[in-house]
Amino acid sequence: MPVITLLPEHKQLELPAESPLIDLEFEYYGEQHLSFGCRSGVCGVCLVKVHHGASLLGPVAENERDFVQRMGFESGPYRLACQCRLNGDVTLEVATRDAMPHAAAPSPEPDRAPAL
Ligand code: FES
């Protein structure tokens, strides 16, 4: 069975070949390794960075590519896990909100805000 290695812990999980990555939820019930929201490629919660094996996750559909780019990421290394099918060993990392290039900078604290 193909192995999914999750960074940074190097935790290894297995799913049958051709499985959608979303099956992690069912195969490892009770252990949340990847977050899923809409499960249809429109919320971005399941964004992952693929370190190895990007070509083994199925083709990137135009809708997925456009969505990932609108989120501010490069399509290819970044995928929506809910849109991927596992065809071999891959290494992934959850793309946290802190890593999002378009994430707003924190607002200054009220007592430190510049005087107008
Ligand atoms: S779960 Fe919403 S985009 Fe993947």
Automatic annotation (TrEMBL):
Coiled coil: none annotated. Pfam families: Fer2 (PF00111). Transmembrane segments: none annotated. Residues 2-98 form the 2Fe-2S ferredoxin-type domain. This is 2Fe-2S ferredoxin-type domain-containing protein.
